[in-house]
Design brief:
Layout (H helix, E strand, L loop, with lengths): L1 E4 L6 H7 L6 E5 L13 E4 L5 H8 L4 E4 L8 H12 L3 E5 L12 H14 L4 E7 L10 H7 L1 E5 L4 E2 L4 H13 L6 E5 L5 E2 H12 L4 E5 L1 H9 L4 H15 L9 H6 L6 H8 L8
Parallel strand pairs: 1-2, 1-4, 2-3, 4-5, 5-6, 6-9, 7-11
Antiparallel strand pairs: 8-10
Length: 283
């Protein structure tokens, strides 16, 4: 049986769509009612990384697990790895981040991901690490200001990021979860080219057929904006990450999507075409 965590999130829901219909799949979610309806029959259980008895029930009978955690200041990974090993799980595929490879990156989030990777490597279970660059879908955070003001507000809008389509990441994850030959490997995943927020704004404007304006935030403005959504330590980590991007650390490309799936990674324009309605009126 395959256990999928994070099924209500950006990547998890796409992974579910790509797993073969004849596989036994269990979804663990804090709120099972939020799990997307799939075209396949799967088992859904209420579970929380922070509640050991629910995690134990979710892991019972599982051979392979897809691990997604988001609590940067918690110990969810350590608990999951410990309990998965005790439950007899054979393989864990973990969603990590490409920043772990950047020796100059020392922010809170990157340190957390590095530590969690080490936990998995030392677990005694088979492991595979998926290290995406940022997601193209992060631009959905611009939707409200695009609809109401036709404005995109970002920090360092001319800095490039080799962002990846979450659907490509999910396709890689589905293959790693169901195929042999991926144990002990770490896959860094990017799109086909590095792209700036200014370029993304221009492409969205063309698809929407309306003029859009890019408004550069100052670091102080960005800190205030992020502070409305995240805890202070996470805000500082995100700002440090933005500085690394401005220095060019997030523009490097890989062809991992193509190597694993046999097809090229999708472009931002392709992703935007499929999601343009999210930026339009009435959404």
């Amino acid at each position: 049986m395959i256990l999928v965590t994070g099924a209500t999130g950006t990547v998890g829901r796409e992974v579910l769509r790509r797993l073969p219909a004849d596989l036994r799949v269990r979804i663990m979610a804090r709120n099972p009612e939020k799990v997307p309806v799939a075209s396949r029959v799967v088992e859904t259980v209420a579970g929380d990384h922070r509640v050991p008895n629910t995690l134990a029930r979710a892991l019972e009978g599982v051979s392979t697990a897809f691990l997604v955690t988001t609590d940067v200041e918690g110990d969810n990974d350590a608990r999951f790895v410990r309990m998965a090993r005790a439950a007899g799980v054979r393989r864990v595929v973990k969603l990590s981040a490409a920043a772990v490879l950047d020796r100059e990156a020392d922010d809170l989030i990157t340190r957390w991901q590095r530590a969690n990777e080490e936990l998995l490597r030392g677990s005694g279970m088979e492991w595979t690490l998926l290290r995406p660059r940022s997601f193209m879908s992060n631009t959905l955070s611009w939707a409200a200001s695009i609809r109401s003001e036709r404005v995109v507000r970002v920090l360092y809008g001319s800095s490039a990021n080799a962002c990846v389509d979450p659907r490509d990441l999910a396709e890689v994850a589905a293959r790693v979860l169901t195929e042999d030959g991926h144990a002990g490997k770490a896959y860094t995943l990017t799109g086909p080219r590095a792209i700036t927020a200014a370029e993304q704004t221009d492409q969205l404007a063309r698809l929407l057929g309306v003029p859009l304006r890019l408004e550069e935030l100052s670091p102080r403005q960005a800190r205030a904006d992020l502070g409305a959504r995240f805890a202070a330590p996470v805000v500082e980590a995100l700002l440090q990450s933005a500085e690394r991007q401005r220095a060019g650390a997030k523009a490097q490309l890989t062809d991992t999507v193509g190597e694993v799936t046999g097809r090229p990674a999708g472009s931002f324009r392709m992703w935007a075409q499929d999601h343009v309605q999210a930026f339009g009126p009435g959404t």
